[in-house]
Design goal:
The complex is a heterotrimer of chains A (about 230), B (about 240) and C (about 325). Chain B has helices at about 40-50, 70-80, 95-105, 115-125, 140-155, 170-185, 200-205, 225-230, 230-235, and strands at about 5-15, 15-25, 30-35, 55-60, 65, 80, 160-165, 190-195, 210-215, 215-220. With about 240 residues, chain B is an alpha/beta fold. In chain B, the strands form 2 sheets. Chain B has a 6-stranded mixed sheet with strand order 6-7-8-3-9-10, with helices on both faces. In chain B, strand 1 (about 5-15) and strand 2 form a beta hairpin. Chain B is globular and about 50 Å long. Helices cover about 80% and strands about 0% of the residues of chain C. Chain C has 15 helices and 2 strands. Chain C has a two-stranded antiparallel ribbon. Chain C starts with 5 loop residues before the first helix and ends in a 7-residue tail after the last helix. The model of chain C is unreliable at about 1-10 and about 315-320 (pLDDT under 50). Classes of the chains: A alpha/beta (about 230), B alpha/beta (about 240), C mainly alpha (about 325).
């Protein structure tokens, strides 16, 4: 579904990504693991259209999307939950979520989607009429995920979705991701919580210093010495 | 006398009680954890202690002195420092200047430029950021920005340090390093009150844990007690 | 950036050569009344005025990132002090009082309003201009029976030397503050006010004090320039041009660097003087076009262009570390 080929991205003169190639197939959960500064967010920004690559390509459903503006990419069916859950502070929780349903396809189904999302995150329903800026850090995260779900994406990219969430919510969140997979949404997951993400994902890529250094089946990766030592502290 | 304590602390935002009648205390030399579901009022409580916010009722005492009504810079000079959940480093300045500011303004002493720079260097080494002194703070990774905030807070020579989710977004190795840092800080004689969601860290590093939910304190005790409390498991831990 | 003392500034090699050049330049400027063309003294006084207003504006609005449109208020107070007191006391005293009066006004206004965020502060400062202008007008008409006032006459050479002195003092003050811990603290306030407060910085005190310091220089300049106009009324004295033009000059020159600010003021003021004489009807249009072009293509002003050129010759920026 998503294919990245020999991608190179620069910030000004500095190269952040080298020859990245990866793919996400329909119905999979693919995890991207790596330290802070390895380039995970740069890669995701490039895929979602916020940053232009210097060379290489990104294709979605066999259509080249690198170079397209971000809003077009969303219309095509990719949804992005940014790290830290960036919400619209002066809008209410409900309005934020409505903004997520902006693509026409999603707008028509928004009432049903609201129900679904509220079931997953009841606290969002509690705070429905509150301004987003009055929410706590973790609630911003929930709201950002809810908003991404509102656009009824085919591919959902999560950038550190468990950041700042209470343990109970982290459990629920990973459960949600699995539920989404069951509903047919393909998921690209970037996470620091390596153990949990490798547990729910089918395949994973390990990014270090802007390059893919390991990839493969999650079961195997969980056993890998390198992964265990560098990322799981074992 | 507790080094930091509060009675009946309450804060309303509009009609909503973000913090409701909370009593708390921290003893000199302790590491106390503050946990609770998202939106429970943890960061709000920190804001009330550091005087970023003014409580609607209740009192907060620092070293026996009533500090409700003072302003943040005054409380800092008295010896209470904090870090922020959404990292607030001075992005356009070099790393070292972030810390130098803390050295100059954090206490009532007058410090000479060279001395301040030396002190800043020492603190950067203490948190593990030496070698990055001249990098603009905005170019640091998130983890390093958090460490910078800690160094900056330590520069103000605090007796009590409030840490707000410094481990969020860290991988396991980094979490272990952060835990060591917290212990090192306590070894210097600084009392620590920390908000965290990373259970591994809280359980092993804290002497005592306080649990907030919907603005109220619902539990308090040793890590062991908290981990086995049915209510806490239901509301927060989920295991 | 962390050099805070005279000793370290003197010791630093990079300041030696520019320092000598500046000193020579100052000597030449100081001698201008004696051997320079008559017109140049008048021309340069105007340019000095703009340098003072622009540098003064940047002193406050640069680090704190709160855009003040009160420059004309402080300038105007200086003008009025000259009109009221000029005949009764020596020029130096009058200028100092002009500066002090503006400072006091800045202290008052600042303590009341510096907590206003962003646009609200800017709008308030603009409203202040209108308020003061009309208040003084009302007072003059009602109590003094006259709207305008005559200002004591001072010869052009003296005006020039006073403006030169004020300019040097303003730029020197701005330079020293930038390099001091006070300047660093101001910068931190502009970036993260809450964090700055939490490391012991008295944010209100800092903001109000720099506001007052910048106002002093604007008021002093006003007191001197008033003597050139010889007749003033509230509408001349409190002219919003003097609030907006310094902002434009600073943006054009590049707010981040002091050299940029001063260059911006010089070039702009020079441009204005030339354009007014050559195209009295079109100069505003040309001005406007220059402004639009510089905002579109020079986001960091002239200083930004210099910085980019330098960066291109020395290498890239930092990687995430």
């Amino acid at each position: 579904m998503l294919e990245v080929c020999d991608l190179n991205t620069h910030y000004g003169k500095v190269q952040a990504l080298w020859d990245i190639s990866l793919e996400v197939n329909e119905g999979e959960i693919v995890a991207l693991v790596g330290s802070n500064g390895a380039g995970k967010t740069t890669l995701v920004n490039t895929i979602s259209g916020l940053v232009k690559p210097s060379s290489g390509s990104v294709s979605f459903l066999d259509k080249r999307i690198n170079g397209l503006p971000a809003h077009v990419i969303v219309e095509l069916g990719i949804s992005y939950v940014p790290q830290g859950g960036k919400v619209f502070p002066e809008m209410t929780v409900r309005e934020n979520m409505e903004m997520g349903a902006y693509p026409i396809r999603a707008w028509k189904q928004k009432d049903a989607t609201f129900e679904q999302v509220y079931r997953i995150f009841p606290r969002l329903k509690e705070r429905e009429k509150q301004l987003a800026r009055t929410l706590s850090g973790g609630e911003h995260q929930m709201l950002a995920i809810g908003r991404a779900l509102m656009s009824k994406p085919m591919l959902c990219i999560f950038d550190e979705p468990s950041y700042g969430l209470a343990p109970l919510l982290v459990k629920e969140m990973f459960q949600t991701i699995q539920n989404l997979k069951e509903q047919g949404i393909t998921i690209f997951l970037i996470e620091q919580n390596v153990r949990r993400s490798l547990e729910i994902a089918d395949r994973a890529y390990v990014l270090e210093n802007g390059r893919v250094c390991l990839q493969g089946d999650c079961v195997e990766l969980l056993q890998s010495d390198h992964v265990r030592k560098a990322y799981m502290g074992l | 006398m507790f080094v930091l304590e509060g009675q009946g602390v309450t804060k309303y935002f509009g009609g909503l009680a973000a913090v409701s009648d909370v009593d708390f205390h921290v003893d000199q030399g302790e590491i106390v954890g503050l946990i609770g579901p998202n939106g429970a009022g943890k960061t709000t409580l920190f804001g009330l202690i550091s005087a970023a916010l003014v409580p609607n009722s209740g009192t907060i005492r620092f070293k026996g002195e009533n500090i409700t009504g003072l302003r943040p810079h005054q409380i800092c000079k008295k010896g209470l420092a904090r870090t922020f959940q959404s990292v607030k480093v001075f992005s356009d300045m070099p790393v070292i200047n972030n810390v130098v500011l803390g050295v100059h303004f954090g206490t009532s002493e007058r410090v000479k430029a060279a001395q301040a720079a030396n002190e800043a260097d020492r603190l950067l080494e203490f948190v593990g950021l030496s070698g990055r002194a001249m990098v603009p703070a905005k170019d640091l990774t998130l983890v390093n920005q958090k460490l910078l905030e800690v160094a900056r807070a330590l520069a103000t020579k605090p007796e009590v340090l409030l840490l707000d989710e410094i481990m969020a977004g860290l991988n396991s190795t980094e979490i272990t390093q952060a835990m060591e840092l917290v212990s090192k800080i306590r070894a210097q004689g600084i009392t620590i009150f920390m908000i965290e969601h990373v259970m591994k860290a809280i359980m092993s590093v804290c002497d005592r844990i306080m649990v907030l939910d919907h603005g109220k304190k619902i539990a308090e005790g040793t890590p062991q007690e908290i981990a086995t409390s049915k209510m806490v498991v239901e509301v927060y831990l989920g295991e | 950036m962390i050099q805070l003392s005279w000793a370290s500034i003197r010791a630093s090699k990079s300041y030696l050569i520019p320092g000598i050049i500046l000193l020579l330049g100052l000597i030449v400027l100081a001698g201008l009344p004696s051997f320079g063309p008559k017109y140049s003294v008048i021309f340069l006084s105007t340019i000095f005025m703009y340098i003072v207003l622009t540098t003064g504006w940047v002193m406050f609005s640069g680090p704190t990132r709160q855009i003040s449109l009160a420059t004309a208020v402080f300038f105007g107070i200086g003008i009025y002090i000259a009109a009221i007191l000029g005949k009764h006391m020596p020029l130096l005293v009058m200028v100092l009082i002009g500066g002090l009066a503006s400072s006091v006004m800045a202290l008052l206004v600042g303590s009341l309003t510096l907590r206003l965020k962003g646009v609200y502060f800017t709008i308030f400062t603009f409203g202040l201009l209108e308020l003061i202008k009309n208040a003084i007008n009302w007072y003059e008409v009602t109590f003094t029976g006259t709207r305008g006032r005559f200002v004591v006459v001072v010869d052009n050479n003296t005006i020039y030397l006073y403006m030169l002195a004020i300019t040097v003092l303003t730029v020197l003050t701005a330079f020293l503050i930038r390099r001091s811990k006070y300047g660093l603290a101001l910068q931190s306030i502009g970036e993260q006010e809450e964090a700055a407060a939490h490391i012991g910085i008295n944010v209100t005190l800092m903001k109000v004090s720099i506001f007052a310091i910048s106002a002093f220089f604007m008021g002093a300049a006003g007191a001197v320039m008033a003597t050139r106009w010889t007749y003033i009324d509230p509408f001349m004295a409190f002219n919003m041009n003097y609030s907006f033009t310094p902002v434009l000059m600073a943006i054009f020159g590049g707010v981040g660097q002091l050299g940029g600010v001063v260059s911006g003021a010089i070039i702009f003021a020079y441009l204005e003087q030339i354009l007014i004489t050559k195209y009295p009807f079109y100069y505003m249009l040309v001005f406007g076009i220059v402004m639009v072009v510089s905002v579109l293509f020079l986001p960091n002003g002239l200083a930004g262009v210099v910085k980019n050129w330098r960066a291109r010759t020395t290498g890239g920026r930092y990687v995430r570390t």
